[in-house]
Design brief:
The complex is a heterodimer of chains A (704) and B (154). Chain A contains 16 helices and 26 strands. Chain A is α+β, with helices and mostly antiparallel strands and 704 residues long. In chain A, α8 packs across α9, α11 packs parallel to α15 and α14 crosses α15. The longest helix of chain A is centred in the N-terminal third of the chain and has 28 residues. The termini of chain A are far apart. The longest helix of chain B has 20 residues. A five-stranded mixed beta sheet of chain B has the order 2-1-5-3-4, with helices on both faces. The N and C termini of chain B lie far apart (49 Å). In chain B, α2 crosses α5. Chain B folds into two domains: 74 residues, Ubiquitin-like (UB roll); 75 residues, [2Fe-2S]-binding domain (DNA polymerase, domain 1, Orthogonal Bundle). The radius of gyration of chain B is 15 Å and the shape is globular. In chain B, a hairpin with a 2-residue loop joins β3 and β4. With 154 residues, chain B is of the alpha+beta class. Classes of the chains: A alpha+beta (704), B alpha+beta (154). The interface between A and B is large, with 60 and 52 residues.
């Protein structure tokens, strides 16, 4: 592999000693920077390491996410943990294996190629050498930087990668103690926070006596500017204080929200950073077809509230967090707390699924701030449910106008997606603020909303350019920096709304051309065989050929995307029944993710993406009122329930000679689109705004 | 005040204000961390435990109301066929919702040894899973039911 194509995790951490160590109990200690957020990454990385070293899977012990003891792999985002983290670990393990074999070959006066490895032991031909990784390790320098020159095993020799091995994290999760919420440390104090309702708000009065009465026991109150925390060794007391506090606080300089701002349409006409991506204007001349689609603000809506632990002892600050990136969090904490990064350690501990940038980092800053004020205690912050919904960064609303110039055959020859959106990434390292920083005596400067670059897959523009063969394609991107709420990365970023829109529009164009939606798509993918293959396969799985006429109340719809136009391919077909509301009956999915490390784990991710996108498409919308986000519980922010879950069938297309592609986000856009198209087929009329609610169906039926 | 709780077959005398949520007593006094806090609003099911065999939300049930009653938490299911069935089906992603779901599934199987899919779905509908693992969870409960029926008929 040439230096220019070496993955980032490798080039940032080229010393194998940073990743691998052979421990005396005949295990291999593997340290990685990508973390478990429910996606099963730790299991897949263990498979990669065991495969490349030729040790048993059980011999691999993984430590993930630790600024003291694991490599810096940035954040666990963008479905890159297998593509970047896995590829890096494979190269490192190949290097370690090569160095070991070189050393042994020197000793035995043979060629490294004469030596084979079985379960970590070295053989010369079939003869045991009496040596293994553990006996040889003291003689081999693993600290020296690797250059990526070692050749990994050929795929044909794989015996662990490509197998569906059970997840390592699941047994603990069926019992007690698997989560950060369950950690107990000496001198523990529970903390709850009074949140600043909006940036710039000033706490004019706080009735501490009333809060102490409500707490029903001794509490300590820690205040830093407009940041207030309530501490108790008894969690029930701390929780009561936190729950009572908002009613006993008077704020000034509040920024009210209005229900009009909760709609995507509000973004249109706001001041924006405008740019054109793709083929330049003007568009080709010809007949123009146009439609506008939208998605509202949505929540990560983790099942667990955000949680963090922090303790300051002897001048060192230790933080435990379910963050997606321990190193970026450490940098963020160092900046806010104005102390050197060396005085901070951040350790990853598992939380509930986050699906992107939720309150994890914010809770870590909360805990760190309190720990600085109250040293020699372990401060455990847990957010309240209303706090999680009310203050986590949201997935931005998006309005998308699509314009196609069509030729005589009804095929698009020029495609423009005009996208209005807030930012899709405002992590602390990328222009955003951690929440409590805005409440301090010297508050954080206003955030500077940006979006991921196109090279990183874009944010609001993600998947706005269709994968189809259309002569000219472009995006007019309006990034609205003044979105009324804090927005940041939520699974799929802009791809969910963009694919919902573009695949809905493809169906509209197909109908206009009198073509079948699948055949129409395939006609635009003549030179894109992997895309065509997943569409054809999903269609076959669903019995697409027997799809009846529209308007019957039963619908079949398809959606397709290659995530980020460079990662995994997924086609999804949805079957719905619609009367007053949508009942999602069945979903079929075909995906091509190249070399799949753990097929069952990958299918689990595909299925999870399908159900989460079904929830987005059918149910989810954040609401605002004057006090801020007003959908602050599961009643006002309903998500998909067990009784609403469809039957699902997922197939992975065999492509193990192709490089691995991350699967965590690839089904979301196609699923939202498939449901939108199935509903349009069922109704004989189209709803272009997510979510596809009872009210919107009624409006279409009455309007139709 | 002192309250006697019968948790997972053992009696425990705990000193607690009777209005304390049962969940806090289980987690922080008895160190049974398998029952999880999700919302405190009886809306997500992460905290579900059995009280005299019935699923209840431990987040909002005051400990004083369950004195002397039989309480079961996920810790009591270590050898239950449900556990193996969830492993066999790989029915989990982040896993935070699972302990509460295991409790409701256990209550269902106690009542209805071979539940239909519709019965499983109805029994679990009070639980939220944000990762979208529901299909696997339903299969796992079906599998546990089948396994137990097999064992019973032998």
């Amino acid at each position: 592999m040439s230096a220019t194509t070496l993955p980032l995790s490798f080039t940032t951490n080229p010393s194998p000693a940073r990743w691998l160590r052979f421990d005396p109990d005949r295990t291999v200690h593997v340290a990685v920077g990508k973390v478990e957020i429910g996606q099963g990454i730790v299991t897949a990385l263990a498979q990669i390491a065991a495969e490349e070293l030729d040790v048993t899977l059980d011999a691999i012990r993984i430590l993930s996410g630790d600024t003291d003891a694991a490599p810096d792999e940035g954040s666990t985002t963008s479905s890159l943990s297998i593509e970047v983290g896995g590829t890096s670990l494979r190269l490192i393990a190949a290097e370690v294996r090569a160095r070991m074999l070189d050393r042994l070959a020197q000793r035995l006066n043979c060629a490294p190629g004469d030596i084979t490895v079985t379960d970590g032991a070295f053989f010369r031909g079939t003869e045991p050498t009496g040596q293994d990784y553990w006996s040889l390790a003291p003689e081999v320098d693993l600290a020296r930087a690797a250059d990526g020159g070692a050749t990994p095993k050929p795929v044909a020799a794989y015996r662990i990668v490509g197998q569906s091995v059970p997840r390592r994290d699941l047994p603990a999760k069926l019992g007690a103690g698997a989560f950060i919420h369950d950690m107990v440390r000496p001198d523990l104090l529970h903390a709850r926070i009074l949140r600043q309702p909006s940036r710039g708000a000033r706490l004019a009065a706080l009735d501490e006596a009333a809060i102490r009465r409500a707490a029903g026991g001794e509490i300590r109150i820690v205040r830093r500017g407009n940041f207030v925390a309530f501490l108790s060794a008894d969690e029930t007391i701390a929780q009561r204080a936190g729950a009572a506090a908002p009613a006993h606080a008077r704020w000034e300089n509040l920024r009210a929200l209005t229900p009009a701002q909760q709609e995507a349409a509000w973004l249109i006409g706001q001041p924006a950073d405008d740019r054109v991506i793709g083929d330049p204007l003007p568009a080709a001349a010809g007949e123009v077809v146009e439609a506008r689609y939208s998605r509202p603000y949505i929540a990560h809506a983790s099942i667990a509230p955000s949680c963090a632990l922090a303790e300051s002892r002897g001048g060192h600050l230790s933080v435990w967090s379910h963050t997606q990136g321990v190193y970026p969090l450490r940098n963020g904490l160092a900046k806010v707390l104005a102390r050197p990064v060396e005085t901070i350690s951040v350790h990853h501990a598992q939380g509930a699924g986050c699906y992107g940038h939720n309150g994890a980092d914010d809770a870590a800053l909360d805990a760190a701030l309190i720990a600085q004020e109250v040293p020699d205690h372990c401060i455990r912050v847990q957010w309240r449910r209303e706090e999680e919904f009310g203050y986590e960064p949201l997935g931005s609303a998006m309005a998308i106008t699509l314009r196609a110039v069509v030729n005589a055959e009804g095929l698009p020859i020029d495609w423009t997606a005009e996208v209005w959106s807030g930012s899709h990434v405002q992590r602390p390292a990328m222009g955003g603020n951690m929440l409590a920083h805005e409440a301090l005596e010297v508050p954080a400067p206003d955030p500077r909303p940006t979006d991921p670059t196109e090279a990183a897959g874009g944010g609001g523009t993600r998947n706005a350019i269709p994968h189809y063969e259309i002569p000219a394609r472009r995006v007019l991107h309006h990034l609205v920096p003044g979105a009324p709420v804090r927005t940041s990365a939520l699974r799929g970023l802009g791809a969910v709304a963009n694919v919902f829109a573009l695949e809905g529009f493809m169906d509209e164009l197909a109908a206009r051309a009198g073509a079948d939606p699948v055949a129409y798509r395939l006609s635009l993918l003549a030179n894109r065989p992997r895309a065509a293959a997943v569409i054809a396969r999903a269609g076959a799985m669903a019995g697409w050929a027997g799809r009846g006429p529209g308007g019957s109340g039963r619908g079949l719809g398809i959606g397709f995307a290659q995530y980020k136009n460079r990662s995994a391919y997924a086609a999804v077909v949805a079957e719905v029944e619609v009367d007053q509301e949508v009942r999602l009956k069945r979903v079929w999915c075909a995906a091509d993710a190249g070399l799949v490390v753990n097929p069952d784990g990958a299918r689990n991710q595909l299925e999870g993406g399908i159900l989460q996108a079904a929830s987005f498409a059918l149910k989810e919308q954040i609401t605002f009122d004057a006090t801020g986000v007003s959908s602050v519980d599961w009643a006002s922010y309903p998500i998909l329930r067990f009784t609403e879950v469809p039957e699902i069938a997922c197939e992975l297309i065999e492509a193990k000679e192709e490089r691995s592609l991350g699967v965590g986000e690839c089904t979301l856009g196609p699923t939202a689109a498939a449901i939108g198209n199935a509903v349009a087929h069922a109704l004989g009329a189209r709803i272009r705004d997510m979510p596809l609610t009872r009210e919107r169906i009624a409006a279409v039926l009455l309007g139709g | 005040m002192s309250i006697t709780l019968h948790v997972n077959g053992r009696a425990a005398l705990v000193a607690a204000d009777p209005t304390t949520p049962l969940l806090d007593v289980l987690r922080n006094t008895l160190d049974l961390k398998g029952s999880r806090y999700g919302c405190g609003l009886e809306q997500c099911g992460s905290c579900m435990v059995l009280v005299d065999g019935e699923p209840v939300y431990a987040c909002s049930r005051e400990v004083g109301t369950v004195a002397g009653k039989r309480i079961e938490t996920v810790e009591s299911l270590a050898d239950h066929p449900l556990r193996q069935a969830f492993l066999d089906e790989q029915a989990g992603q982040c896993g935070y919702c699972l302990s509460g779901i295991l409790i409701s599934a256990k209550a269902l199987l106690d009542r209805t040894p071979r539940p239909t899919r519709a019965q499983i779905v109805a029994a679990l509908d009070k639980h939220l899973c944000r990762c979208g693992t529901q299909s696997r969870i339903i299969r796992a409960v079906e599998r546990a039911g089948a396994h137990m029926a097999e064992g019973a008929s032998r």
